[in-house]
Amino acid sequence: MKILMLTPYLGAIYGGTSKVVRELASSLGRLNLSVDIVTTTANDAGSLDVVTNDWLIQNNHRVHYFPTWNRSDHIYSTTLIRWLTQHLKEYD
Fold first, then answer.
1. Which stretches of the chain are assigned E, i.e. beta strand?
2. Which of 2, 27, 29, 45 has its CA 20 to 30 A from that of 58?
3. pLDDT score of 72 more than 70
C-alpha cells in the first residue's frame, strides 16, 4: 500500500500537528507500508531551511517540501498543488 499524507506544515513551531504527522508516518513505515509526506516550507512568518526539489528520507518514510507563500496561518504553494494534480493517482 502506498500512502500519501498531506499537511500544510511540519515546522516545530506548529506543535501537535507536525508531531502527530511525523509519528504516524514513521509508525506506518515500520509496518512496511510506503509512506510519503508532502508539505510546505512554512514556519510561522518564515520558512524552513530544507531541500525543496527532492525527497528526504526520514524514519521509515519520505518527505517532500515545497516552497510556499505564507503569512502566519495563510499558506499557499502553487508547486505543491501542481505536484498533487500530477501524482495523486499514484497513491492508494
1. 2-6, 34-40, 42-43, 46-47, 56-58, 61-66, 69-71, 74-76
2. 45
3. no
Q: Is 20 helix (H, G, I), strand (E, B) or coil?
A: helix
User: Within 10 Å of residue 85's Cβ, how many Cβ atoms?
Assistant: 9
The DSSP symbol for 8 reads S
d(CA 8, CA 11): 10
- Pick from 56, 26, 31: nearest CA to 41: 56
- The cell for 60 is 521509515
Q: 37: closest CA among 74, 68, 62?
A: 62
